[in-house]
Amino acid sequence: MSHELMSLPYSMDALEPHISKETLEYHYGKHHQTYVNTLNGLVEGTPDADLSLEALIKKASGKLFNQAAQVWNHNFYWQSLSPNGGGDPEGELKAAIEKEWGSVDAFRKEFTEKTIANFASGWGWLVKKSDGSLAIVETDDAETPLTDDSVTPLLTCDIWEHAYYIDYRNARPKYMEAFWKLVNWDFAAKNFAG
Q1: pLDDT for residue 61 is more than 90
Q2: What is the DSSP letter of 137?
Q3: Mean pLDDT score, 178-182
Q4: Is residue 89 a contact partner of residue 179, using CB atoms and an 8 Å limit?
Q5: How far apart are CA 189 and CA 192, in angstroms?
Q6: What distance in Å separates the CA atoms of residue 104 and residue 117, rounded to the nearest whole number?
Q7: Which residues have CB under 8 Å from 122's CB, separation 6+?
Q8: Could you tell me if 56 and 64 are in contact, meaning their C-beta atoms sit under 8 angstroms apart?
Q9: What is the mean pLDDT of residues 186-192?
């Protein structure tokens, strides 16, 4: 099977003014597309060619893992954003966040601090553990919680520089402020319930 660049669930300018159309043209249109193209080149004509993205990630290493995981991580990231996002979660997800952190604001503060502090290029994740509790996980480079069967990813924030440099230069904290205005709590809630 050939892997394809996922269709964005919104138009390229839908996240403005928080994330620009230009950023999406580069981040989605060039970076994400390159991961897909490179992945297809690596698996073409091999026994891995018929594996799903998730199956590839769970068995691959090195360059193949990096390309497959980056495709999956980006697919997840685009769904973690919404032009109608922001605000606070509702229902069971909100209750789980409040149980773990005391309030949504306290969660947002800790997630922001940990994500900003990640020295590497990488990802900030909200995950549900196998016991139903929540945790914040930081991964570097292409690492993904998908490789850990004891957690379920709920949402992610991409902190590679290409995610924010056009709009915010080196101001990662400003990008994080924008992320919270776009965060797709409905997507996170579906993952939490799933």
Answers
A1: yes
A2: E
A3: 98
A4: no
A5: 5
A6: 20
A7: 138, 139, 140, 141, 143, 159, 160
A8: yes
A9: 98
